[in-house]
Please model this.
Amino acid sequence: MARIIGGLGTTHVPAIGKAIAEHKENDPYWKPFFGGFDYVHEWLGREKPDVAVVFYNDHGLNFFLDKLPTFAVGAANEYRNEDEGWGLPVSKTAAGIPKLSWHLIERLVEDEFDITMCQDMLVDHAVTIPMALMWPGKAAWPVRIVPISINTVQHPLPSLARCLKLGRSIGRAIESYDEDLKVLVVGTGGLSHQLDGPRAGFINKEFDQLCMDELVRDPEALTRFTIPQFVELAGAQGVEFLNWMAMRGALTGKVTEAHRNYHIPISNTAAATVLLGNESRPRQQAGTAKVSRIPEDASAG
Model:
């Protein structure tokens, strides 16, 4: 059976991709951020995941304001990157794992999530930059991916509670998959930042720290914030934290913080990286009674 080995939350600022392309990882401006991945590289080298399930938000490459699903799951053989207008080099193609994608899709629909199924899907910097950060300099990324897009652009947005439940549904689905795979769950974006308007450049370090703390110990506590409240506290683009909430929801075991790095600013953004361990619960022994799985949120639309 598939096993979730941990979760990673990290930013996906486009300027990071430009810094990688220009080999500026050790420049004084960038080193505090890139240095925060040293432990992540060591951990990935030990754990060697087979698959990365990536919660991210599309920036107009695959979806736009005229057609923007709340939740979309990739079910393609591969995921191409194209020029998004940031001046970034086009990234390598990421390999997919359609059988796992369809398994997750089926379980999400059973849990009454209304999703868009994408058998052809482009991925933008919200996927490719975290991949490049986790596996720098690789000719090909050593994992297959399942990209899951969450709308953080066109209001109304899904709530933090809804994204946490989405992650929990995904976590249960991964653990019911009948192939021996080690799965890393990734949430990308944020943390606090606002790119336009009178509050452009807004960063809230205190709130970022609260979010990272509660993400580990009590993610339910964060669901008290409405989307308008979260925008007020974290900035208009700080809602990318929804991806982190889904990542945390997918961790089904005992969650511990293995590593944290926080650095401000990176291109007017609070850049953070958090690595979470997921200690698996004992699996049910053969012959023991089974309990029917009931959707957590059967009443939600």
About this structure: Confidence is low (pLDDT under 50) at residues 284-301. The chain has nine helices and ten strands. Residues 172 and 252 are 7 Å apart (CA to CA).
